[in-house]
Amino acid sequence: MKTLAKQKDQEQITGRLLTLKTSSQRRWGRMSANQMLCHLSDSFRARLGEKQPSPADNWFLRTFFKWGALYSPTPWPHGVKTRPEMDQSAGGTPPKGFDTDRDELIGLLHKVVQLDPDEKWRHPLFGPITQAECLRWAYLHMDHHLRQFGV
Fold it and tell me: What is the pTM of this model?
């Protein structure tokens, strides 16, 4: 199972990020490649406590949806609505510059993987999650959006 807790999975995701180009075309959705970098950075900022996404969890999302998102072998579906604070056309962080935004994302990734493994976090949809679950979610979230741009 891939997770950012594993060094080889971190390296694989980082390598994919480095192949992304500002001209990479999306296969679905409406974000540009640069907006996607900022969206992923915002998700890491939320984990680090630097950004506060509005909660939207309920019993169904905390149980069945969380399990399906983290442990189902099927790829994440397209078109799942994000929280407004993470939406690049609403309250998300605007792009600064492609290389700057990519470097910032890689730096945030490294900060998140270094967090205390015993620390829990409240995901806006999944509710309370462990650091291990967070690193699984982060891998899948990044993989989803990198596939969105064909990398």
Answer: 0.94
